[in-house]
Amino acid sequence: MKFPARERVLYEPNPLTQVICTIHFSRILAIDHELPVGFQQDLIQAFPFLETEEAPIEKSSSERGEQRTPSSMIYEFNSADRDVTIALGADFVGVRTLKYERWEKYQENISTAVSTLLKHYSPKVFTRISLNYINVIDRKRLDLSDVPWRELIMPALIGPLADEQIPESDVEYYASLINLPLADGKVRITAGLVSDDDKNTPPNFLIDNLFFSERAVDADERQSIDHLTRFNAESGCVFRWCIKQRLHEALNPRSVD
Description:
Order of helices and strands: EEHHEHEEEHEHEEEEHHE
Helix content: 25-40%
Strand content: 25-35%
Structural class: alpha+beta
Distance between the termini: 28 Å
Oligomer: single chain
Number of helices: 7
Number of domains: 1
């Protein structure tokens, strides 16, 4: 699908709560069995804090009664302000930011992660490349508390919320999932109502756009960055396709210099 071209803009307030890039490759046993000392040493100046967690084990193996392989670790290298994380697992490297500003700055962190991976572990093929933009629309924050979702979000994403005969307060839960082809891969749009812990607070609206390609490509930094840059170029067009003009204007768009 070809989404209509849109001017590149920055929003303030920014609806993005996080952006996640993940690059997968065939499992590297050295990451499982050796501490990533060199990897950490190259990152420690900009990412001084380290956290670890066990990678989840696929349920299918245990359900079939097969012997499970030893737990694999995920190493998370965090920036000093903890806004950016580079994650390393046995079959992936990822970069997450909680304060996305613009692509050029985020891309630098991706380049750092990929170049460090290639230096220390030399995977030959990247099996999946993805870029995930997670937006949460908070009407109260935008002074739009009394505006119904049907005036802010396109009908394709909101299902029963587009029907004037159905009170929004009666819709206890709603979610949708749309998969669409792109020239360079696919986009998975997950949308729906999301609530915080305060039951008295009206729900916000999630627009989670996951761009991905599962075509195996050479493990090359420049090629992977080029692919992700094309996903980034599509991301603004997809987000604008998801929202109506009133919400676009409420987000105070400004042209990118």
